[in-house]
Amino acid sequence: MRRLMSAVLGLMFGIASVAIAHAQAPTDPQIVGIVQTANRIDISQAHLALRKSTTPQVKEFANQMISDHTNLQKSISDLATKLGVKEETSDTAKQLKQQAAEESKKLAGLKGKDFDREYASHEVAYHQAVLDAASKSLIPNAKNAELKSALQGAAPLLQGHLQHAQQLQQSLQGSSSGQY
Amino acid sequence: MKISMSQANHPAMSDSPPRCMRRALYVAAVCVAALPACLLGQIQSQTSPQVVTIKQMHFEPATLKLKPGDRVEWKNQDIFSHTVTANDGQFDSGLIAPGGSWQTTITKAGTITYHCGPHPNMTAELVVEQPGAHGHAAAETAKEAQTSLRWTLPKRPEEIHPILVNFTAALLPLAFLSDLLGRLLRRQALQAAGLWMMVYEAAISPLTVLAGWWWKSTEANQLPAKLITLHQWLGTAAALLFIALAVWRWSFHKRAVPPNWAYLAFTTIALVALVYQGSVGGAMVFGQ
């Protein structure tokens, strides 16, 4: 069941990333909007994990997501202010929000290890999707050189989160192997 | 004059050096005993750490070469918190906030790979090499080729210092032993040997020290910084102590009495310092 769920989730985010990649080329204000939406989503889901999970590794990961994405959010916001770019919404941002709302609803209904596993696998898929979107759509389409370079600088962070989430996912699988 | 005469005749005072000299010797002995500790502290605080900068999700430099005992400081100039976590678990900084830093001293030789806990894609390594380990074999081969049995007059400090060290190292224990036995067995000849060997020790050791400083000045960069600093200052302090001991020893001779136990105790301290000094010197020449 878990595998099926992961597969469905993976497919969903795969489609999402493809959707982001193939959407109409975003403008700089839309790029800022997409990045900030992605940051807000991850922060709010991390807060949810802090409230619902009791696993120290999950809490640690969630705290890290809050800290890193808040800092990223601030740096992008400072850059946008400096460049005079005002955040704009887009279909991609809306799509991200809608998917996040569905995921949050799903997470809210889960408890204990089920919650941990779902959160971890979602974080893997989410960071993968955002990373794909950054490399295939946001970075190539960014007009402003400073914005482009800031996005390029954020890619290793997302890559790091992806690996961290994968490690978390693995360790959670390892800890539950005795139950099945 | 009268007072000093009466002191000299007094049996209890007969084998004690003048008060001010005794005081000076106590101070000298305490200084020598405390020297290694003070120097180590000083070296520790003086040695500026090697710096790794954490910036834009990278450790810079990704490979840092070090020697055992070096300090490393990681400065987080990123906008995110990071950790410095050794893959084998030998160190872990915990989260270093943006703008913060963390230091550690690397003691063992070998390659240490490390990463950032929250961002496992950030990895780097410390290559800790024993000083002289590299090129040591090559240097040995070169030395081997140059070696011949033909004796030439020592001219270079690396030849002179080890020769003089032999005299410094031999005279002090022999002076001590002669005085100890001379006192226990009440042998005048042994006491005279003890006196003169201490005088020779005081005369030769400053030359040993000078040759050492000369050697250091020619190859300061190739020697392990901490060891050489310790060795040069401990050596200098020891030579001064030997001079003080020789003066003290001479005062017993002038009063025609055997050296007292206090003198023998100070000589023992000097001996311990000399043995330690020898081990530090050996560590530099032959490796630790």
Q: Could you explain the architecture of this structure?
A:
- The complex is a heterodimer of chains A (180) and B (288).
- Chain A is mostly helical.
- Chain A has a single domain, classed as Ferritin (Up-down Bundle).
- Chain A contains 6 helices and no strands.
- Chain A has helices at 2-22, 28-52, 56-83, 91-108, 112-141, 145-176.
- In chain A, helix 1 (2-22) runs parallel beside helix 5 and helix 5 (112-141) packs antiparallel against helix 6 (145-176).
- Chain A is elongated, with a radius of gyration of 16 Å.
- Chain B is an alpha/beta fold and 288 residues long.
- Chain B folds into 2 domains: 17-45 and 159-286; 50-128, Cupredoxins -  blue copper proteins (Immunoglobulin-like), CATH 2.60.40.420.
- Chain B is 57% helix and 13% strand.
- Chain B is built from 7 helices and 8 strands; from the N terminus they run H-H-E-E-E-E-E-E-E-E-H-H-H-H-H.
- In chain B, the strands form 2 sheets. Chain B has a 4-stranded mixed β-sheet with strand order 2-1-4-6, with no helix packed on it. Chain B has a 4-stranded mixed β-sheet with strand order 3-8-7-5, with no helix packed on it.
- In chain B, a hairpin with a 7-residue loop joins strand 7 (110-115) and strand 8 (123-128).
- In chain B, helix 2 (19-46) runs antiparallel to helix 6 (225-254) and helix 6 (225-254) packs antiparallel against helix 7.
- The longest helix of chain B is centred in the last third of the chain and has 32 residues, at 188-219.
- Chain B starts with a helix and ends with a helix.
- The A-B interface holds A 61, 64, 67-68, 71-72, 74-75, 153, 156-157, 159-161, 163-164, 167 and B 56-58, 79-81, 98, 116, 118-122.
